[in-house]
Amino acid sequence: MRGETTTVNGLPISGASAGASRGRHGRGAHGLLALVLGALLLLVTGCGGSGAAAERDGDAKGTGGKTADTSASRAVVTIAPKDGADDVATSGALKITAERGKLSTVKVADPKGNEVEGAIAADGLSWAPERHLAAATKYTVHAVAKDDKGRESAKDTAFTTLVPQNTFIGQYTPEDGSTVGVGMPVSIHFTRGITDPVAVEKAIRVTAEPAVEIEPHWFGNDRLDFRPEKYWAAGTKVTLRLDLDGVEGRPGVYGKQAKTVSFTVGRSQVSTVDARSHRMKVVRDGKQIKDIPISAGAPSTTTYNGQMVISEKLKVTRMNGDTVGFGGEYDIKDVPHAMRLSTSGTFIHGNYWGGSGIFGASNTSHGCVGLRDVRGGWDGKTPAAWFFDNSLIGDVVVVKNSNDKVIQPDNGLNGWNMDWAEWTK
């Protein structure tokens, strides 16, 4: 019989030999076949390797042959107040810190997405807001810190600030959108006396274009004025920002106002009244445009000296001596073209009841500056009508050579009578 050839994995095995072996040795042939097949299997697995083993090897080595670090960040972020807290104080309560790492991101925002300004400390271990928080407001906090291996850890919380039982606002002048004279300060009267002026002052900002140094000054505990060292330049645009919402102005009393006000300084006009010569010279943008005869305060009721700012214009008003300490000496119900210069009752106004001979010749008033006028103020050509029509709130009227003292800086909008060193002290 011809021998048969069998192949296993491409290797020939003689059929005769296999048969003879089977005939002669039986179990030995089977053992030989097993050994051959086993060797072939080892050869195959040794060259290609299994898919699972290759995947394990690739995972372990990674792209750089290094084992990836999948452990958690060691950095810990701590936020106060705790998540869900209510009745949180608007100042001093919000604190964000990091341990075993440094803060990399902090975001605190109200429901409208307005973010609270703040800064991460130089060492990266804490964050603090630059200003107070608003009252009765829910804030969300998102903070992230990194450990020394760059692994991040984050924390998110939310809290709500207190609802004040007692509040205050600031009543400001000038009005939003107005055009004023060069002497107009920003003046704010608070509806409650302030015992923490630093906190309140920090919440108010006054800026100008073109830029100029602007400083605040307190008159008592309920009035705060801002002005530059010298009169505003003509054309200056001034912006007042009130961020009083949440400011604790006195124990248990919080501001409830957030407002931005802007006004424009018009042309420059400064008028100088000389009580001795009985005349007033009007200077606009550095050029004299008018010389008007006046009548100032009589010898027993003199006019204050000093720089006074027009704070109110009234086409007609009543002047009663009872309201300013002169008893029943006068009560004129229709004073025309009146412009207020002081809180205590100093005006520059039209005078129809004095003889025309007093203007430019004698001082006859109870402390005001009088200009010739007609009853009812209907004649637009009188000096009083001209001056009224050509004046702005905020224009300056300077009185000199009167036998009286200089007006107090807080009597009206007259802080210009305080030198800069005293103002900024």
Commentary on this structure:
It is a single chain. By secondary structure, this protein is mainly β. It has 3 domains: 76-161, Immunoglobulin-like (Sandwich); 167-265, Immunoglobulin-like; 270-424, Beta Barrel (L,D-transpeptidase catalytic domain-like), CATH 2.40.440.10. The protein is built from 6 helices and 30 strands. The chain has helices at residues 15-25, 27-48, 51-61, 197-202, 383-389, 420-424, and strands at 5-8, 11-14, 76-80, 85-88, 95-99, 102-109, 118-120, 126-129, 138-146, 152-161, 166-168, 170-173, 179-180, 186-190, 204-209, 215-219, 223-227, 237-243, 248-250, 253-255, 258-265, 269-274, 279-284, 287-293, 306-309, 312-320, 331-340, 347-351, 369-372, 396-400. The strands form 8 sheets. It has a 5-stranded mixed beta sheet, with no helix packed on it. Strands 3-5-8-7 form a 4-stranded antiparallel beta sheet, with no helix packed on it. The protein has a 4-stranded mixed beta sheet with strand order 4-10-9-6, with no helix packed on it. Strand 16 (215-219) and strand 17 form a beta hairpin. Helix 1 (15-25) packs across helix 2. The longest helix has 22 residues, at 27-48. The model is unreliable at 1-63 (pLDDT under 50).
Topology:
Layout: E1 5-8, E2 11-14, H1 15-25, H2 27-48, H3 51-61, E3 76-80, E4 85-88, E5 95-99, E6 102-109, E7 118-120, E8 126-129, E9 138-146, E10 152-161, E11 166-168, E12 170-173, E13 179-180, E14 186-190, H4 197-202, E15 204-209, E16 215-219, E17 223-227, E18 237-243, E19 248-250, E20 253-255, E21 258-265, E22 269-274, E23 279-284, E24 287-293, E25 306-309, E26 312-320, E27 331-340, E28 347-351, E29 369-372, H5 383-389, E30 396-400, H6 420-424
Parallel strand pairs: 4-10, 11-20, 13-21, 22-30, 28-29
Antiparallel strand pairs: 1-2, 3-5, 5-8, 6-9, 7-8, 9-10, 12-14, 14-17, 15-18, 16-17, 18-21, 19-20, 22-23, 23-24, 25-30, 26-27, 27-28
Helix pairs in contact: 1-2
